[in-house]
Predict the 3D structure of the following.
Amino acid sequence: MLLRKTCAINILSKFVRNKSIALVGMSDMEGVFVRCVPEEERMQITVNYKHEGGPCKTVNLERIQVEEVGKTIERLKASMLKKLSKKKKRKKQETADSTEEPDLKIWLTVKEKLIENEATPINQTFVEGAVLHIEDQLLPVEINVPVITALVLPTNIMVGFPIYPKIHAEFCDLLKSTFIWYRYQSVEDESQKKKKTKEVWDKVSEGFSYTPTISDLGNKLKLTCMPKLGHRSGEEFTSLSKCDVEAGPGICPFESRHLYTQNTLEDDGIRVVSYNILADIYADSDFSRNELFPYCPPYALAIDYRKQLFVKEITGYNSDLICLQEVDRKVFINDLLPAFESLGYSGVLQEKGGTTPEGEATFYRNSKFRQVQDCSIEIRKSVNEDDIQSDIKNIVSTNETLKQEMDTRGSVVQVLVLESVLNPGCRLCVANTHLYFHPKACCIRSLQTVAIIRHLQDVIQKQKAEGFKVSSVFCGDFNCSPKGGAYEFITKKYLGPDNYSWSNNPNFALEGASFSHELDLKNSCGIVEYTNYAGNFHEQLDYIFIDSTMDMICVIPMPEHSEVKQHIALPSVVFPSDHIAQICDLKWTSLFE
């Protein structure tokens, strides 16, 4: 499943509604508010009006878009009269006076012209510029007003770590909307004879995100949002934090790495990050807490804690290209995407095949790249269906056990073709993957890698055939050491029949398997002692491969070993994942000048 952005920030929710629900946030504003989306069968109409100077009343309708306007007006009138009739009956009981049944005159005009054809569909009459007349009241019709339907603050807030709200919005450009953060403060009210405390909210910041300070410690926060789209504004929405601001874990090792990435690179530079952030479905479970990571406090495995760390970590790298693995769907939608889009990135999630709600996510800086194509694939489907993979399919078919295992793996490779904003004729083919993890599955990982390289070659060749200059970056968690078959195939362009990958597991044994490729790829960050340090397992599994059209400027140093094992292993209270991000600075070669 591929999730893409559909508005300024991709947290546009499907509107939560029942058959007669008010448009959220419009209950206190006089007027007629219509939600009408062409792709949907029905439309919602909220009418806020006053009768005889009384308080604002609300009538909600949900109707088929092609319903005749005459029927809708009659339905609206009936709903209003029903409320008035109840009010009159109450007054009659109170005064014992006879009261005539109420009546209302209601009609609709568009650009001051009366709607005379009552058979006209309501999606052609309840439009911008229309006015609903209720007796002597004139209620302008507004279509698809910017609206916030939900605004939720994190359940864990720490000093020094940026927080972002979870927002459900419609018809709203959140990048242009107004956000104001407040801190709670209780003060003594001197005006009272008996001293009492009163609530005071001090404004502390503006903007989509906020990093709590020591002054916020022990207090709650409040966020207000005024949704906007162009010149239009909706109604302000407010959310209070359910928790007090807590102290953070102190200095995290990734903050030392931030010293090397304080500034963004020049136009011809590309900083790349590859990072397995440890999916919530693998971290926050009894098995993880008791077996995989027993040394890590349970609270530090919870996603509400970890996401504060990895958002701060990744944003602090000031990268141009970010390739993440093990990205939960909810974390992508509610946390990563809003955080990065507010900083000028675009992002795409490619979920794994099957029912696993996690996958690979790639973000790129909008000032340097624009996406022109998405060529992502599910590896097993490509092997079984694509002509360029036919020899892999044939050799796998010689081992039924291997074939069944290959067919159950939902591994994907996310492949985005990005175009340079400054040099439109130059394109970057970015691949991001996470290979099968089992220690006795070297054969499967090697075959997955062969299939990926085949696909990557095909994408690059097609781009070149269209006249573009193409460079490539291949990132991911390969679950393979530098001695493994996958690594050897990528860097040496060949994997022969004697490679141990074909025989390390008797169930997956292959005879005579041999593959080669033509891409010139190298490990840009070099060989290190480990990129994964969990319990008793320490190994390099993560890589950033680049081709010969790119020059490596520098590699951001790894954390000190003493920092990694300060809390026994990873993850910990200062490391949000069991992996360590790989980061390097690259540069286009003269070929792309």
